[in-house]
Amino acid sequence: MVTKALLVRLEAKPGKEKAVEEFLLSALPLVEQEPGTKPWLAVRFGPSTFGIIDAFPDEAARETHLGGPVGKALAEKGDELFASAPDVSRLDVLADKT
Length: 98
Known about the structure:
The protein is α+β, with helices and mostly antiparallel strands. It has a single domain, classed as Alpha-Beta Plaits (2-Layer Sandwich), CATH 3.30.70. Helices cover 37% and strands 28% of the residues. Strand 2 (40-44) and strand 3 (49-56) form a beta hairpin. The radius of gyration is 13 Å and the shape is globular.
């Protein structure tokens, strides 16, 4: 069972929507190497608003993910791709079907 989750909202800079989409697609192989990250979803909320939804069995797995390659890539690409800093919500999971 997962007990912790993240919801990350990302707003693309004007004209960078395709680059954000490509960035999120490129993150999948990195996340596949994280045994504690299940599930992981890259989503599009609207024309320029994207997100990442992921869940973890515990706080340690969530922290490992945040300090991992996707978190580092978000920090490195932030100024280039995003209109503002990622909006990260830390969630407690009440029930799940994964």
